[in-house]
Amino acid sequence: xxxxxxxxxxxxxxxxxxxxxxxxxxLGLDRIRDFRRIQRTLYDLNMSVSEAECVSDKPIELRxxxxxxxxxxxxxxxxxxxxxxxxxxxALRQRxxxxxxxxxxxxxxxxxxxxxxxxxxxxxxxxASRRNDPLGVRTIxxxxxxxxxxxxxxxxxxxxxxxxxxxxxxxxxxxxxxEKAGRGPHEVVLSEAQYFGRHPEFQQPRVQxxxxxxxxxxxxxxxxxxxxxxxxxxxxxxxxxEETRYQIKVQYNDERVSPESYMAExxxxxxxxxxxxxxxxxxxxxxxxxxRWLESQVMN
Length: 300
Prior knowledge:
Radius of gyration: 29 Å
Shape: elongated
Distance between the termini: 48 Å
Largest sheet: 5 strands, mixed
Helix content: 40-55%
Strand order of the largest sheet: 3-2-4-1-5
Strand content: 15-25%
Order of helices and strands: EEEHEEHEHEHEEEHHHH
Number of strands: 10
Number of helices: 8
Structural class: alpha/beta
Protein name: Mitochondrial dynamin GTPase Msp1
């Protein structure tokens, strides 16, 4: 098990800030500028889940403030497993599935991460996204380890229509790639951009590749999702305003209401209610309440 707890990573763009820093709000750790310390803390919090328990539904909250990150909130979930080993409980597969289901519901955007050296038909991530997003309108397919497949096969995987997603598939290479230099035995280490640049198959217009492309896609999808959410919020606010205007019209008969008159009337209502309460709560009621309290203390 690598990811044992959901990691809720919030990226906050701070254009006027200098250095980047992180925070663990659950622990009260603020403005940590040493990212090696952040990595150690993240590792320790993740590994605090015992091998017997395997996974926990208590998330780890991490916030990163930097001028070099977009405004995004990402959640890293435990990966689906096919077979449990002898140290893991038999119910672990279902526990991971139930945990992931809580995050895959609307309106969250799903990143279905699949490896290029595994057939998409066997992808547990795609199966899970299909259960929660049958039409594929809020799922982005992320194909990792693109360098592990032949360029032509990788391009076919990124452009196929057998498992269509409205937001498409994006291929990424997360680690340096080692390739032979010419016909000799020597190897060269390539970055993601260098690897994609060496293979013309990836230059086709329909092919989406690179972590940078994924980052831009996520920001665009998030903005569109926020826009749709805000439109429903605006409608709700308008409805509340109309209802409030109607209530004011009924209560004040179209008389002009100032903050002073509204406050005076509210105080009058409060005085009347307090007076009615005072009349209902006399010495007998007070004596009975004190006696009940004393009896409860004696019983304790």
